[in-house]
Each structure stands twice: as C-alpha cells, then as structure tokens.
Amino acid sequence: MSVAPDLSPVPSQDLSCREAFTAADQPRRILVYAPLAYSTPHFETDLEIAQRHLDLGDQVELVLCDAELSSCQLNPKHELARCIQCVSRNRQGASQLSSSVPVHGLLASLEPEDHARLAALPRVFASQQELGAYRFDQFDAGLATLSSLIDFTRALTINTKALATVIHRTLHSTVATFLACKRLLAAARYDRVYIYNGRWSMMRSAVRACEQLGIEYYTHERGSDFRRFALYRNALPHDKGCFRGQVEAAWAHAAGHPQTLPLAEAFFTERRQRVEKNWFSYTKLQESGRLPADWERPARRLVLFTSSEFEFAAIGEGTVGRIYPQQSAGLRRLAGLMARRSPQTHFWVRVHPNDNNPLSIKTWTEAVAGLANATLILPAEKVDSYALLDGADRILTFGSTVGIEATYWGKPSICGEHSFFDGLEAQYEPADEAELLELLCRPELTPKPRENALRYGFYLNTAGANFRHFVTDQISDYSFKSPFRGRCLRPDLEDLRQRLLALFQAGDFARTMSIAGLLAAFNANDDAAYALLVLSQLKVGALESAVRSLETAAARLAPPQLENVLKHTASGLLDALMHAAKKAPSSGGPSDPARRTGAVLLQSAPFAAVGRKLLALADRNGNARVLEPIVS
Fold first, then answer.
1. What's the CA gap between 416 and 394, in Å, rounded?
2. In terms of domains, do 243 and 388 share one?
3. Which of 564, 517, 563, 519 lies closest to 542, judged by CA?
4. Is pTM beyond 0.90 here?
5. Segment 352-383, tens digit of pLDDT
6. Domain CATH for 350
7. Packing angle, helices 593-601 and 543-556, rounded to 10
8. Which residues are CB-contacts of 325 (< 8 A; sequence separation ≥ 6)?
9. Cα distance from N-terminal residue to C-terminal residue, the chain
10. Which of 421, 390, 400, 428 minimizes the C-alpha distance to 304?
11. What is the pLDDT of residues 59-109, one digit of tens each?
12. Fewer Cβ atoms within 10 A, N terminus or C terminus of the chain?
C-alpha cells in the first residue's frame, strides 16, 4: 500500500515556538521581563509573547523599567529624553494587551540589605581580566558587564581604569537587576519567564536569576525574517549547542516534505541576491563582480572572511578562542607560517562590513602591516564578497556564515573558531593550529557535501513564529509606525502625563513616584509632575522626600506653577505633618519638615498665611495639637 506524500505547508513556526505556545492543562503563571521598551521590534515581541499567553488563558505579569537604572544597554549615560521615550512606550504597550496585567517595577523588589550590598560593589578593576572574572553570588556579573561595555565601544579590549565610572554604573545596574529578579522570582511561583536576547548585562542578570532558582525561561530574538521571532528554551540565542539542536530538530521534522529542499536552497540564493529578510544585507552596496586590483596575481587564492567578534567576546567559555584569542592575531600568525610553508599562497582578507568603524579598521590594518602575502579589503570597499568566494581556492572563516555558504557553493571551507554549524560535517573544523595549517597547505581539498549545508539553510529560512498581533513591513522601525494590536507605540510626552495620572489614581504610587520624578527632572517647569511626585511620596509615607520635592519645585517653578502644585498638595502635606507630629513633636530647627514646608508656602500668596502659621508653630516646637487648627 503506497503512502500519499505530505503536501501540507511547512509549519510557519519552529518546534520551540510550538512547544512554548501549546496550552497547558492548568493556567500557567508567566513573567515577561521587558525593561528595554525603546527597543523595537523586541519590545513588541515581549508584548506578542504576553498576548499569546493571555490568549491561552495563562496569567501574565510584566517587568518594566521606569528609568530606575543609572545605566542600561540602550541608554548607558542615562539620558532623560531616552528614558522618557522608553517609559512612554512601555506604558502604552502594557495597556494594549487584551486584559490588564500586573506590572512590576524593575527594581521594586530590592530590600534595604540589597542596597547596602550594591553600595559595596567594587569601583575600579585593575584589568579587563579581573572584571571578566568578577562574580556576585555565583553570577558572572563581570562578564555580563563586559559584554555590554564591548557592545558600547565595539572594542574587544577595555581600559578598565579609563572607563571606571561607566563600568561601575553598568555593574551596579547588572547586580541590581539580578538581586531584584531573584527577589521577585522567589516571592512568586512563576512557571516560565521570557527574556530578550540574554547577552546584555541587565538581561543576563534575569537569565542567571532563573537558572539559580530553577525556573524555566525562554530567550527571544529575531526569526528568519522581520515578521517572525524565535525562541530558545533555557538558553541564549548565542548557545551554539542549543542552536544546532534546533537545526537538527527542524530538519528531521520537515524530512520528506516537498518544500523542505526549496526552502533550504532559497536561504543561500537569497543571501547571494542581497535579499533582506531578518537584517540588512551587508553586501547590498558592493559592486557585483568587482574583485581586488591584485586578484590576478599568480597565487593560490585563500580568502579569509572575518566576522564581528564583539557579540561573543564576553559570553563565556566555549564561544571564542578555540585556536587563536582573536581572528586578527590568528591571521597574522598564519600568514607568517604560510609564507614559509606555502609561499605560493596569498591571503585576501575581507573585513566584515559590520566592522566599518575606526577601531576595527585600525586593528585589521595593523594585522596585515608588513605582510607580503596578504591583501586587506576594508569594510566599505565595493569588492564583491561572492566574486571573492567564487574565485577562491579555499575559504577560511572564524565563525562567519560565509563558511556554510561556501560549502553550498562548492568551495572547501575551513573554520578556525567555534561556530553555529559545528558538527554538521559542512566545513572543516581543525582542532589546533597544526591541523589548520595542514588543511591550508594541502594541495587538493575536497569541499564538504553540499547537502550538509542544507539543514542549516532550511532552519535559518523558517526559524521562528509569525507575529499575530504585531504588524510590520520593516526590519527596524524607529519611526514606530508598526502597530501592536492596532496601536503604534510612539513615544509621546503628553500621553505619558495622562497615563501617569491614571497610574496614580489606580493606586500604583511607587511607579508614579518613579515616573513623576523622571518627568520633573527632564522638564523643570512641569508643575503637574511635581504635584504627582509629592502626592505619591505622601501616599507611601515618605514625608521627608515629599518636602524635598516641594522645595525643589519652589526653586524651579514660576509663582503661578508653584501655586498650582500647592493647590494639589498643601492639604496632604499638612495632614502628613500632623500625623508625624503625633508620633513625635517636631524639633522646630532648620531641618524641621513643618518649618521647611512653611517656608515654601510663604512663597505663594494664596498660601502665605498658612505658611506663616507653620513657621510660628515651628518656632514654638509645634506638636500635633497645635497643628490641628491649621489642618482643619
């Protein structure tokens, strides 16, 4: 009996996504850790994940940032304008979900002892190695911090003394989010946590908190195109073992389907055609067919395609440095050895277009300086990478995707580093320098089977789930024109003010304080922000903070604006002063809250009489009994 061929379409989401979004027997408690709301489409992906779990009947909670950190990945200098844009988007995004969900402030779970430990963090590290080795409660906080710093600077070598201030700020944020996450996760029984990427400092802190407490987590990243997102269970997207497992699972699942081979082949042909799917094409600006001026020299053509190392430089052991500490050092060493062992071989070094920055150009220029057997092709040069590939005798990479592409196009491909396609028998993977040299010098080298590259191409052309609630036609949309559930989450200051009032009215005074303080710091004339700041501080019993905020408002605002603040806050302040006096009579000294409040009231004509009474009472060491007539 014959079996009919499977003609159903290849699933538009991979197995990891299908597993994540399968309904459970009982509603699950899901936490979406989403502090980087300015980041698009990744914040929309956070929301997409949250909405999918709401659709499944699960309980969903969010962690959002209200500008609590002194440094974050998208705003290392804590610029207030960027913080406001981020907070505006996170408030809009949370409200776009189909039902109201609990929202936790990023650092709201910290306890006084946590703040004491944060104050004791090291302020200076003697070297990059010392920073990378720093651990906090078994958390690789130094590497997490280093990962963000390398991303900021795009430099693999960090001067820890020159950057001591930014390092401390970043480390403080790294450890603060770790401690807050552990507190939150330990207090609630979450079934799963979702985290974007997981590599950066404030994201890896959440990953490590989950791991230490044994809580299942998924990281998410871009999928095979800009309309999809991919998930990685209990792993970072940079986990090559996890990645290869998903490649193999997807290939096995799709075996025998008539679309499997065409989809696999399309990955390679579309890259060659400069089709932009999940990221911008780095070869789009290259001139088709263009080759280096010295390409016709008599030589065995060995083309090295470099890769951007910064993303993996601080992930951990087993990600970089398999043979050489850095690929530039590897090239210089190999060129010297090959000059003696295979003088007919010439290196053409195609520097990755994403490394088009002064530091990278300097690094590679120095690497080939004085080498007669190496030609440098800088990132911005119009030389065609695929023309280089076609004309090469063999290809050398240190993890670049070109390595797997070379195999598909019938070229011997050698990889001198860990890569995402290790173990697929799709490239030569020398274990050490001696084996690498033998492969480079061998007169004939047969390409690995083309078929072995196909499973990688299939996965990268189908990975991830299609968005259901987020609609976009762009790879990166920082004009914020791509809607989530019908709303484009554009930063909007006036909208944020309105949402701040609603937050106060809903009783979320801690988050109101944080956002109102941000708005007041950003705009010294924002009387509404000052009013809400003082009121929320009074609501949580922070009288001293409320009086300080009132004094700041009095110093910054024009008289009509100060009057407006007092209209909304004077009654609450007087009430709080009376309650404080019931507990302990005021001192009447310069720091006395009643005296300081009276001094501010005195600056506004409608409140001057009350201010004079407060000052008089302060002079007599006023207590609750004598404050009562003023309050009433």
1. 13
2. no
3. 517
4. yes
5. 988 898 989 999 999 999 999 999 999 999 99
6. 3.40.50.2000
7. 30
8. none
9. 94
10. 400
11. 999 999 999 998 998 999 899 999 999 999 999 999 999 999 999 999 999
12. N
